[in-house]
Amino acid sequence: MKEKVTVIEERHIDCHGCHGELIPTLLKLWRTPSLQRQTARFNTVIIFGRSDGRHANEETNGAGNGTFVRALFCQDKRECINGAFHGM
Q1: Domain of life, per the record (predicted)?
Q2: Each residue's pLDDT tens digit, 14-30
Q3: Which of 23, 30, 47, 62 could, after both became Cys, cross-link 70 (CB 3.0–4.6 A)?
Q4: Burial letters for 8-22: b for 16+ Cβ neighbours within 10 Å, e otherwise?
Q5: How far, in Å, CA of 31 to CA of 87, rounded?
């Protein structure tokens, strides 16, 4: 039976082409103690996406409005969504 991937944090980032600013923002968010406690037992991933529901890839993160981030966890990285950033 596959482990369900659970969203533990989702936060909207109002981003206007902020490619260079998005990664530091997420790293700061990810270092929040409450998130670290919740995910200590798991392989953690961060999913980037846009408000239209399509996931952005590494090259296009922050390219426009409505960028959001989901912090997800799962017990097996292979079960996580493709394109996620692992090990943050």
Answers
A1: Eukaryota
A2: 444 444 455 555 555 55
A3: 47
A4: ebeeebebeebeeeb
A5: 12
Question: In terms of residues, how long is the chain?
Answer: 88
Alpha helices of 1-88 — where are they, by DSSP H? 19-30, 33-39
Question: What does the block give as tokens for 34?
Answer: 């409450």
Inter-residue contact 70 to 47 (CB < 8 Å): yes
Task: Answer whether residue 1 is part of any domain.
Answer: no
C-beta separation of 55 from 49 below 8 A: yes
Q: Are 15 and 50 in contact (CB under 8 A)?
A: no
Count of domains for the chain:
1
